[in-house]
Amino acid sequence: MLKSIIVGVICGLVFYQAQAQNLYIPRDVQGAFNKGTRSMDGKPGKNYWQNHARYNISITALPPDRNIKGIEQIVYFNNSPDTLKRLNMKLILNIHRPGAARFFGANPDYLTPGIQVDSIFINGTKKPWDNARASRTNQMVGLPKPLAPHDSVKLNITWHFEISKESGREGMIDSTSYYLAYYYPRVSVYDDYNGWDTLEFLDAQEFYNDFNDYTLNVTVPKNYLVWATGTLQNANKVLQPEYAKRLEQSFTSDSTIHIATKDDLAKKNITAQNDVNTWTWTATNISDMAVGVSDHYDWDAASVGVDDKTHRRASMQAAFLDSAADFHHSVQAGRNSLGWLSHNWPGVPYPFPKMTAFQGFADMEYPMMVNDSHQDDIHFAAFVQDHEIAHTWFPFYMGINESRYSFMDEGWATTFELLIGTAEVGKEKAEALYKPFRVEGWINDPSQAEDLPIIVPTSEERGGFGNNAYGKPSLSYFALKDMLGDDLFKKALHTYMDNWHGKHPIPWDYFNSMNSGSGKNLNWFFNNWFFTNYYIDLNLQKVTKVGNGYALAIQNIGGFANPFDVKVTYADGSTENFHQTPAVWEKDQKQITVNIKTVKEVKSAVLDGGIFMDADTTNNKWEAK
Fold it and tell me: Nearest Cα to 251, choosing from 338, 337, 316?
């Protein structure tokens, strides 16, 4: 019996690997499979590698002075089989330069001179640098000596920049509150399928980073508080004893502890009373570091259990204006997010020690931080925070290339926002928000750009970018969940996450992992949802009386393999619902017959997709004559 099971499993894997070839695979991705860095069972290949770096960063911010100064040492490790003659540096803040390529216009308050590198040394050798020429968000830097496989190179860089008055994903929140993100020169990703990531940042699509180790020192004036990615190493040095004690107490408290209140801030005695204080943070195996600074933001904190096996707790903190009523609920809303997402969907314990919600304007995620705008509606504020915290798993636990495949992170965060929202406010209210916010803008827009295949690289999109990143992929995940059932779907999802956490998955790794994890060939489904220009539009053509009930002829005009309900009203006034999973479309994605077994007379029938909203509902109903 055991032998036959093993043989069956092996044969099954061979079958799924062969079937995986049915999906279109770009030539660069096929090259990765050929080289053995990725495998058709969804796992990293035996030759998989990724590069890594250690960053030691020190920055000084002296609000209201807008000039930020930085110095860093980067030790970059080449784990690839390739000899690198140059490094590609990411200079994201150059998006603020006048004349920078960007998707949108820029107001005067957005514009700055960008990153200004004062000096760069490579292995002790000073390199020439022209800030006028290094004006883009990518800058290739030649190495004095080629970097051999399994060797490292040391960079020492000093730089400065002017923080923008207009705050988006980063910038001034007000004259003495700053949010710093993407503020340091970094080595871009060099990967196994595309080489150097040289996509320009256009202020729309997002990011792609290696997993690195960081030490971050942030120097600010006294009475300024600092929040950042990572673990604060010197709380007792930068905080007065009472406030350091409150912070420490919050690490084991379910209840919100007010570390610094409006009244506390007015006393101007929360921090050590040196002219400046340097706050030190560390984080390992993480993709970025973000920082918030203010001299008048409240500071709340508590914690929540996220891992039942280890009894590990995660800190939930918030930094905000005292007048922002929604942020006074942020810590408890965040505790709910961290706990629910850890235990339910995705059902993987929150992987980091802390999360901080910082009041800004971006509604944007960063490792261990979210920069969220104030909302008058407390429930909507929780909805936004849920979404941004859900990004922890995609792209920060999984090293997603957001620049190229945004559906791999935004689609999942959108899915989790509905799942946790359903638990928080109920199915009806959660879907009443999801449908207009995530689906209507796409399904009611017939323009060609909205029906581009999801697999189209995000970097090549403009018009349909939002719906291809958020709503459409989220619907695909819900459709697959509906078809597989919760248990098998979660098993497959965890197979994918176990395969690729801390690494750089691409869509084909997701497809292959879900095939292996579910034990099913799902390529027909993935081809339908990701590689076609389909949409949702079902047509209930006719209902015919047959021997044991009724046969419903249904045409799939739009093409997507979506689930739907057949809602039947009988002649006696009673109703019945017949759910159809996407599996009904596996054999024929354009035309099916749904058989309804009943002894009653059917008066009318309606097709209802729920969140799978139909582009034309006028052909979804049949009534007996």
Answer: 316
Residue 128 neighbours by CB under 8 Å, 6+ apart = none
Starting at the edge strand that comes first in sequence, how are the strands of the sheet with 257-260 ordered? 257-260, 298-307, 312-320, 354-360, 369-373, 364-366
Q: Are the C-beta atoms of 397 and 501 separated by less than 8 Å?
A: yes
Q: Peptide bond preceding 113: is omega within 30 degrees of 0, i.e. cis?
A: no
Instruction: Check: CB of residue 304 under 8 Å from CB of residue 343.
Output: no
> DSSP per residue over 351-400, as a string?
-SSEEEEEEES--EEETTEEEEE--SSHHHHHHHHHHHHHTIIIIIIBT-
pTM for this prediction: 0.95
DSSP state of 439: I
CB-based contact 408:510 (threshold 8 Å): yes
CA distance 447 to 438: 17
Q: What is the pLDDT of residues 337-382, one digit of tens each?
A: 999 999 999 999 999 999 999 999 999 999 999 999 999 999 999 9
Tokens 């869509």 -> residue: 507
Which pLDDT band holds residue 462 (cuts at 50, 70, 90)? confident
Q: For the beta carbon of residue 524, count every other beta carbon within 10 angstroms.
A: 17
364-366 and 369-373 strand pairing: antiparallel
What would the two tokens of residue 301 be?
Answer: 């904190």
